[in-house]
Design goal:
alpha/beta, Rossmann fold, 5-stranded parallel sheet, 5 helices, 5 strands, 16% strand
């Protein structure tokens, strides 16, 4: 299965690692867009169809939480799932992200299997095109 994925992280090497993990998890055909911070991420979201956003927590200009909060204010962007990939150890910060509407989080370091499991649980489709038990498959149309 292929998706349109936005990777938002101020570290180019980390964006590469995340992209490799997606490919290893079976999503090699997916379309990847990249942004170095939340401001760039919002600009990309306004211009492109994105199925899921993978973001870092700590970034300059606009962090991942601020980007998520801005997305939730937009009728166009509010339903796009956002997953935080972070080294952040504070459960309080992770809880804040989840309470703000994040679809999930993955702690660094992570495995391709964790990526696959997260995508399957959020989007309801695995990399072998199997659908989840949700009859609407996560869509409301």
């Amino acid at each position: 299965m292929t998706f349109s994925i936005l990777l938002v992280d101020d570290s180019m090497p980390m964006r590469r690692v995340i992209k490799k993990a997606f490919k290893a998890a079976g999503y090699a055909g997916s379309n990847f867009s990249e942004a170095a911070n939340g401001v760039e991420g919002l600009e990309k979201l306004e211009k492109s169809w994105i199925d899921i956003v993978i973001t870092d927590f700590t970034m300059p200009e606009m962090n991942g939480l601020e980007m998520l909060l801005n997305m939730k204010k937009s009728d166009l962007l509010k339903d796009i799932p956002v997953v935080v990939v972070t080294t952040e150890g504070s459960q309080e910060k992770i809880d804040q992200f989840m309470k703000s509407g994040a679809a999930g989080y993955i702690k660094k370091p992570f495995t391709p299997e964790q990526i696959r499991d997260m995508i399957t649980s959020i989007l309801g489709v695995s990399n072998d095109n199997e659908q989840s038990d949700d009859p609407d498959n996560g869509f409301d149309f």
